[in-house]
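2024-03-11 09:14:02 DEBUG pipeline.ingest accepted 1 chain
2024-03-11 09:14:02 DEBUG pipeline.ingest length=1016
2024-03-11 09:14:03 DEBUG pipeline.predict start
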Amino acid sequence: MTTVSYRLPNGAVPLLLSADAPDLVVADAAALLSYLAAHPAITPQALADMLFRTRTPRRYRALAMVDSRDDLVSAWQAVVDGQAHPYVVRTTPAISAGRVAYVFPGQGSQRPGMGRLFYEAGSAYREEADRCAAVFEEHFGASPLKYVLDELFPAGDSARVVQPALFTHMAALAAMWRSFGVSPDVTVGHSQGEIAAAYTSGAMTLPDAARVVGIRAHAADEFARGDYAMAVVAARRDDCEGVLARCTGWAELSVVNSPTLVGISGDREAVGSIVDTFAERGAFARVIRVDYPAHTTLMKDLSVAVRANIARELQNPKFLDTETDCIGATLGEPLTNELPLEQYWFLNLRNTVRFDKAIAATSAREIDIYIELSDHSTLQLATHENLAAVGDEHARVLVGTSARTAENLDEFTRNLMLVAVNDPDYPWGRLGLESDGPAPLPLPDFPNSAMRAFRSWLPYSPAPQQQTAPPVAAPAPRADTSSPRLLVEQWVRLSQRSLVPPRAIGIVDHLGSGTDLASDMCNAAKVIGATARLIDVESRDDRAGLDTHVILVPQSPDTDDPEAAAAVAEFFGNRIWWPGIDDGVTDCWLVTTGGEAVVSGDEPPDLVSAAAGAGFRSIGAEHPGVRFRHLDLPRGSGSAETALAIVTALHTGEESELALRSDGFYAKRVVEAEAIAADSDAASRQHVLVIGGTGNLGLEFCEHFARRGARRITLVSRSGETAAVADRLRRMRLATSTKIEVISCDVSDHAAVSRLAAESQDAPADLIIHAAVEYSGAELEDITVEAADRALRAKVVGIALVLAAFPRADDCRVVLCSSIGANVGGRGLVLYAAANRMLDAMALRLRADGLDCVAVQWGQWSVTFDPAASGTAKLGVTGLLPMSPADALALGMGRLPGNAIVAAFDLDRARSVLETCGRASLLSALDSQVVTTHARGNDADLPQRFLTLLAGTIGVDSVDTIDTTVPMVAIGLDSLQALEFRRRVKLEFDHDLEVTDLLGGASVGDVLATLVAQSG
């Protein structure tokens, strides 16, 4: 057998927490801290394995990288406290796509031995470095590995030594990133780094790239006899050119890295003089390790030799086609074949480097993550400034690969994990190490993912006397509608359950079909210290002393849809199973079989059991304070083991919807759905059939598809075209070219449906929408079999008859309009909830049979009630809010992959009602917008906190040694540290520092004064 354990490149253990909201990540960390405390023998590796095996990474993430339990406790405590921690990385909230750019720098930051750490620790780096070395040795007779690996290598900065080494190092770093699942969508090259970028993107072969490096390096060394230098300056281009114009020696602008970072090349004395000038102004300026005047007009003298050598040596005269864009700083544009390669690579040596334009070109490519391929980052600040300069405020992750002071892979590992947590599609399996042996067992009592508990309920609205909602004219637009949410039902396996004390259970077996199961349940109850007995629903005395009722609904025989509807009408109309609610009863359970589709492999739900469960939920609204709960068993249940599982389930606290399957208990949640594509086929619909088409909802569907160009729409209803309907359709016909027809037909009448189908043989439907509405409004004691039959016929029987008879196109889609009442329930909605739940179950069966069918549970429509009516006031306090048809249909008519819910909630307002019926967990995974604030401490402490952040950034042991009156660059702040300091200040004080101020001569006191003024 093979088992997988998770390790990071530096040997640490990764432990990933994730949730759909930031505060739920905090809650998860708190729960796992408690779990750690209660299980002192469990190791971080065991926890990591459990998290990766049982949880799917979600939007917001916090990842701990630890070697010990103590480190893990410290890391998760920092997540709980909202503090930074060296072993924790978190998501950047605005990032969504995770598109990656590799950034390859030019010459200047190289050093002997820069790749030794990676070569020794990473097989991917080592294999690529060896490949590059072999090619260079074959073509130029020298291996770059001597410089890459030997920290004591004696050579200076000869381009023929340094540039092949830099290329090899960057190409091998790219291979290392790729080996951990991070591949580029775009590569960006700066000067010599453009060659590595072209090779990594696939635009050049390795031999051709190596030849260009060698030829370019040989040309650069032609100037080694002169005394030249290059420098980087933190100044705007105009300011730098102003100083250049006053310089008596020769120097030119050679690099534009960003609006405030430029480079110069020229005679060493002139370059040194310019650096001194800017240093005297308090601005950052530094000579870099390049001893030829790259990217100046002096390079023109090499044109003939360089171009001739490249034309002769390259195997491919053009850039190769590749799916990975490569953007070069030579032109500030993607690589092009407009120029011959010999001319392009000469321009790469001569032209002013336009890194600013290259990064600006990535903005349109929606890059979220920029990774610099070097052993010490030099271009992060420039990248940040360039994106800001083009007005791109999108939050991004900018990381390097390592740091020149690194002694291990900790820095690389942290950067890798910063990328991973921000990439929604990061392949976490790349961190897994396979070994022989059995897979570890699940950890006992492992906490579930954190969820937020909110409560919601449907209102009780007395039913109108008529059974079908009357068609009315289009209502006036409402200004007080709420944005709907696209939701789905999800069954979550419970690895840990809250338990209640032993119960006194009364079992109802009204048909006598579960005698053996009931007897086994009585025996099982004794095992766990509970009591259980069969009860007679007619005898009050028989039920004395009980606190729990359990109603066993036997598995239904195979029936067609009309027979299922009749069985449901009989169930709720006769009620021989209903014991009532006696004093002392706090829990009432309904146990069904095969009524829910829970796990992969489950058959579609049985319609009778599904309807029984939904109607039962609504009965609970009539008995506040009593928890009405539902347990669904798998088909074929009935053994003694099943009995023990049922009794165990009855002792579960908090959950209201449970299902027993072979691998344990599952609980139902309503959760946010994944984003879906819009209905791109709306305009091409040839024939849309809307059942219940002249009701308010049906007319909304009609208008939705007419405005989108459907060619023909047929509205079917019992009432047909009334005057009010005709007026609204007249306006639709004037505004669109759609042919709209209204047909009077009772779809619950088999003969009427047959006539309708016969008349439509020449126009098969490619979209069928079942929007018939049947309100009953009766509470349980008032339901009769006849009333239940009427409520179910149009809703369930009618659609079954239509689908059996009406002609359909091969690609026909069917949308069954269900209601959120099928899940949430409500007082007086017993039959309404049951009928809609039958539609949900029918959709699953039809989809399993190959029909493109979904059921959508709609919430409260703004068109279904009069804004002046008293029901509006009731609606406002229930938590279910009215939604506009346009907003709702935009979600519910998209390309849904399965059943869904479209509803608007005020979850906070709904809390108390759902709590009273013990159903708080159903909507607990839904999230309201949460605004978090960070405690900032005492304003009097602000200067000390600011200096502490600065000291930590630049590596100063004591804040007392910091002179607050001198420019920050004078106390050691470089460009990379400036970017890090800006990040720390933003996190601590919620204040955006201008990096140009930090590098342009501002003192600590200047920046601190601005910060104090803002806080005041």
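2024-03-11 09:14:41 DEBUG pipeline.report The chain is about 40% helix and 15% strand.
2024-03-11 09:14:41 DEBUG pipeline.predict end
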